[in-house]
Specification:
Blueprint lengths: L1 H15 L8 H22 L5 H14 L10 H13 L15 H4 L17 H11 L6 H21 L4 H8 L2 H8 L5 H13 L3 H14 L7 H8 L3 H24 L8 H7 L7 H4 L6 H24 L3 H15 L9 H6 L6 H9 L6 H8 L6 H23 L1
Helix pairs in contact: 1-2, 1-3, 2-8, 3-7, 3-8, 3-9, 4-6, 7-9, 7-10, 10-11, 11-13, 12-13, 12-16, 12-17, 16-17, 19-21
């Protein structure tokens, strides 16, 4: 009960940040995240079957209560809605940047983040369709409709997750500081991915599992890393593995084919985004000091991700699906030079099915990078200081040692 009250209080603090003075909102959000994380860990420690109902009520109420809060941690929702408005106006967001002079009239109606002006969209077709659907409601309420959709997806994921987790694991999902605050305040697309992935994992029929995994990929590409361990896990029944593979592939191919037929070149600026940006990754600590080129860094990072994926497949081969999926969901972000906190929403959700001290430390510490919000509000500098990355790296490193001892025992 106390943990649920503390978590609810943290959500109220996070909500208050939307109306805080400029230059203090990032600090308020970090404080809220720390309180919520402590409440989540306390709930994990003491949760039992009798407390599941209270966890569900708290989780649902907090998700709903944050819907009216204007997003203030990033400008992503404004970008989502602008991409949707571009589609409704007949422009291809994959080839036309928000800074294009042809969009002057659109800018007069729809707000668009200036820092996104040079980049075409990076989101897959189903995500862009969702943006356009919400943009139909107009600039005054589209963001609120989008936040309602995100909250609903988070609640569906919570409902599905209940059947996959122990009471302790369920506490990590119901009171997930990352999933609830990134969905409730930031309203990030990644929460829709969480819903698709949770439904896919809960499905036992390979066609349904593959279809939902394909939906996740059409919302954001990262869930594709879950396919290899799912296939390895299903290999004892080869025909089931084939159906899973072709169901996933078919949904993705159909989604991109429909976008292509409609005239959209659904690739966007993903390559240039990862080639130019850096955020939240320990790779940032060595890239400039060691004068490593971004191309070399990306090759090394890809090798690290490949090793992590091989390890995930090996774990799945040993019939341990939940930890295999947790590692596979983490793999691309272990290697990526860009790791915004909301990128870990799927990882944080899967944590309830396979609790891990190392991954828990990562998803808990990474939002310290939101210290950047205060400076961005003042001087538009979206470049985090080194200390949050150092602290996150040290916290995760410190978690490895007791985790290894627990594994041995």
């Amino acid at each position: 009960m106390a943990c649920c009250v503390a978590f609810s209080t943290a959500c109220l603090v996070a909500a208050a940040g939307a109306w805080a003075p400029v230059g203090y909102r990032g600090t308020i959000y970090i404080v809220a995240h720390v309180i919520a994380s402590l409440a989540m860990l306390g709930a994990y420690r003491f949760a039992d079957a009798r407390g599941v109902g209270m966890l569900t009520i708290t989780g649902v109420l907090c998700r709903v209560a944050l819907v009216p809060v204007p997003p203030y941690t990033t400008h992503d929702v404004a970008r989502y809605m602008f991409d949707g408005a571009m589609v409704l106006a007949g422009f291809d967001p994959y080839t036309v940047t928000p800074g294009d002079m042809r969009l002057v009239g659109l800018h007069a109606v729809w707000p668009s983040p200036f820092e996104h002006a040079r980049y075409t969209t990076i989101y897959p077709p189903l995500a862009v369709w969702a943006f356009a659907s919400c943009a139909r409601f107009g600039p005054d309420v589209a963001w609120l409709v989008w936040k309602g959709v995100v909250a609903l997806a988070s609640i569906v994921a919570l409902r599905v997750g209940r059947g996959l987790m122990s009471p302790q694991g369920y506490a990590l999902l119901a009171l997930s500081s990352l999933v609830v605050l990134e969905g409730g305040v930031g309203a990030h697309l990644d929460v829709l991915c969480v819903m698709a992935v949770m439904i896919a994992v809960s499905e036992t029929a390979p066609l349904a599992r593959g279809a939902w995994l394909g939906v996740g990929v059409l919302l954001k590409l990262s869930p594709i890393t879950l396919l290899p361990p799912l296939l390895i896990y299903t290999l004892p029944a080869p025909w089931r593995a084939l159906r899973l593979f072709f169901a996933t592939l078919s949904v993705v191919v159909v989604g991109y084919s429909v976008a292509s037929v409609m005239g959209y070149q659904a690739v966007g600026s993903l390559r240039s985004f990862f080639g130019a940006w850096a955020f939240g990754s320990p790779w940032m600590l060595i890239e400039e000091p060691l004068a490593i080129s971004r191309s070399t860094l990306l090759r090394v990072a890809a090798a690290v991700a490949a090793l992590a994926m091989m390890a995930a497949c090996a774990i799945a081969y040993r019939r341990r699906l939940a930890p295999a999926l947790l590692l596979a969901a983490s793999a691309p972000f272990v290697a990526s030079p860009v790791v915004f906190p909301w990128y870990l929403c799927t990882t944080a959700a899967l944590l309830g099915a396979a609790p891990s001290l190392v991954v828990g430390a990562w998803v808990t510490a990474l939002p310290l990078t939101y210290e950047v919000i205060d400076r961005f509000d003042v001087d538009a500098s979206w470049q985090p200081r080194a200390w949050p990355i150092i602290v996150t790296t040290l916290v995760v490193g410190a978690a490895v040692l007791p985790w290894r001892r627990l594994r041995r025992s």
